[in-house]
Amino acid sequence: MICSQAAERSVLSDSEAEGGHGQGGRESLLALWREPLRLFRTARQLCRETCGDEVSFVVNRNINFTNVCVGRCKFCAFRRVEGFRLTDQQILDRVASADALGATELCIQGGLAPGMVVEDYCHILELISSDYPRIHLHAFSPMEVLHMAGNSGVEVAAALLDLKAAGLGSMPGTAAEILVDEVRRQICPTKMNVAMWREVITTAHRLGIPTTSTMLYGHVESFQDRLAHLEILREIQGQTRGITEFILLPLVPWRTELAGVTRGPDLLENLKMHALARVALHPLITNVQSSWVKLGREAAGATLEWGVNDLGGTLMEDHISHSAGSTESQYISADELCEIIERHGRVPVQRTTLYQRV
Ligand code: SF4
Question: Whose CA is nearest to atom 7 of ligand 1?
């Protein structure tokens, strides 16, 4: 397994390193934030101790199967009241093209289409897994799970068990945005609250479904909100060990309702935030990923100097970032990812979704 060896030391005290940060931990992190050079040095050192020289990536494809959504998230330019829903054949065509490029993972997410029930989501998984059993299905956000369970009138655990039986391998820890209810009321008022997000994620872990974890930052949240978010992820991981990685998602505001409110984080803030995540989550979450499609390739490469050990996937399509105004292309080849990693003096490693070597 990549990056399995937890480093011995943390900038936090032992009790802070095991669970939440506590007040002392928050003050340590704030002090580091105010001293970027010390922050970068610490993040770099922890990353090297934990992951060595290796930087991983996964050959995958996103499939956004519908943009029809009843949600009202202000950072989203993807949703439509009337939009597309891929047919079975369109889904299979996308899977075939991913398979031809050697993809080991499909990341499947969509809008919250009215009336979609658990069986509809299971059908997508079964459609793919019956023809492509070797491809890992990384699918459906906690909000989608809540949506389908509500539409079907079943408990979240029952929905998750059905999805697992249909071929679900793991789940994206998206819909997290910022895990502070007051912030959620401002940017995604129709989305699940923090307690419900935790409930879906920890239920998935209990049922043997690993998840990633994410943070959408650079909008209305404060620095303390970001720390509260990271603390929740630490608490969950301390209890379940079910989180495979942490992915930082800087806001791309240009075509969203938040365009007039913020320009999104600048380069320095992005670099600092990736470094802070490495320090704050150490040693519980060892894989910290930057998003080349949101940051751009150059900036994503720069994060490798300051605490990041994973560049995510080849994607092949990303309607969500592009609708919001990302100007990056929707595909990066494995060779290009290797080039970026090597340019920063690191060793590229192709991985599976669950951080095994390919
Ligand atoms: S972020 Fe997801 S839930 Fe929110 S409006 Fe967009 S598609 Fe819907």
Answer: 111
Asked if residue 293 lies in contact with residue 336, where contact means CB atoms within 8 angstroms, the answer is no
pLDDT of residue 11: 52
C-alpha 175 to ligand 1 mean position (Å): 8
Domains and their CATH numbers in the chain? 24-350 (3.20.20.70)
Burial class (CB within 10 angstroms; exposed 0-12, middle 13-18, buried 19+) of 350:
middle
Cα 112 from chain centroid (whole Å): 18
User: Which distant-in-sequence residues (6+ apart) come within 8 Å of 64 by Cβ?
Assistant: 78, 109, 110, 317, 319, 320
Residues with CB under 6 A from ligand 1: 69, 71, 73, 76, 78-79, 111-112, 143
- pLDDT tens figures, 262-272: 889 999 999 99
**pTM value > 0.90:** yes
**Alpha carbon separation from 144 to 65, 70, 111, 112, 155 (Å, rounded):** 12, 11, 8, 6, 13
pLDDT at position 12 is 53
Of 53, 51, 67, the residue nearest 6 (C-alpha): 51
Q: What is the mean pLDDT of residues 50-79?
A: 96
CA dist 24 → 29, 102, 276, 350 (Å): 9, 47, 16, 38
- The CA 294 to ligand 1 mean position distance, Å, reads 17
Pairwise CA distance, residues 142 & 198, whole Å:
9
User: What average pLDDT is seen over the chain?
Assistant: 93
User: For 84-123, what is each residue's pLDDT tens digit?
Assistant: 999 999 999 999 999 999 999 999 999 999 999 999 999 9
Q: Are 29 and 273 in contact (CB under 8 A)?
A: no
